[in-house]
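[Automated response] Your request has been received and processed.

Submitted sequence:
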Amino acid sequence: MSDIDVAATDAVSISEFDRLTAPVPAVQDGGPEMIQLLTPEGQRVPNADYDALVATLGDDELRGFYRDLVLIRRVDAEATALQRQGELGIWASLLGQEAAQVGSGRALKPQDYAFPTYREHGVAWCRGVDPLNLLGLFRGVNHGGWDPNEKNFHLYTIVIGAQTLHATGYAMGVQRDGAVGTGDEQRDTAVIAYFGDGATSQGDVSEALVFAGVTNAPVVFFCQNNQWAISEPNDKQTRVPLYQRASGFGFPGIRVDGNDVLAVYAVTRAALDSARSGQGPTFIEAFTYRMGAHTTSDDPTKYRVSAEVEVWKHRDPIERFKAWLAHEGKADHEFFAAVEREADELAVHVREGCLSMPDPVATEMFDHVYVESHPLVAKERAEFTAYQASFEGAH
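Generated structure:
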């Protein structure tokens, strides 16, 4: 685990803390069970609905999940350190949410399209985005240095909840293009929209759920409920578990243990399969926890107690999966050590690559406004170039 500031705070009352950190019950308010295939101790929990999906995974794929979890956590740690050293303007950490992102990201097929927020570094990794492109965005030297259409992974969205509308619109387009329910595994397409529990309070999300429901769009709404919308806990945002909202829009909702990579993979794969086959949207609530700050400009000790973080440390998604792999004989000490060495090498790549990023040429801001040249943009480029030139030779 990365070092986490667990200084004590009086921001939350003891009774409130007891409520927040109580063990998650199997059943929430009489609703469906929270899907879990691995306990926090790494013990396998049978599930008749999802065991078959996990059984299709080979040992190499399972070890690949572990590798993904470890490497993206290391990228996250390096990026946080770089921001603290003034090399990034800001960073949104995914610490604690790795399983939710890797499990869902690996459930996607190549033709599926993902719409992230600004924290989906693990999904970006699964879609083949170089972590340096993520850092470039937060360093202010690019606008997201990957081709969204090549990776089928949209650019990061800062406006809270807006990407759910983008995803729904794209899914409606896929539907109208006849790429849903054909039975062709290479053609049928699903869309996934990522957002946090805080975003569910935004109107954009409700509008997206409305349109997805009434059009039966092939979209999966993947909510990472990390318990805190910056400083607002769940009970300040909703009176019912988030997944239950889906029923009001006419499609299924399900809650999954977001720290269980196997369960997340199985639930997301089933939802995506359903969307591709023409059965419409699904709302997945991945019940997880944000171990660090909302962003590097946030101080979580102002609104949550350190003991709450300690409780969730024992539900760590990487240690849980590692324990299961070792117990089942699917990975040994040599494998785990090799992954750690790879993580060290990746850390060097990330750090050196970030520090060597060139500043962009200022006129590049005009290059991608329109696909084709535009007289107004050309005029503004000329004016800006002349303005820059006016400083040449000035003392």
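Summary generated for your ticket: The radius of gyration is 22 Å. Confidence is low (pLDDT under 50) at residues 1-17, 19-31.
If you did not submit this request, please reply to this message.
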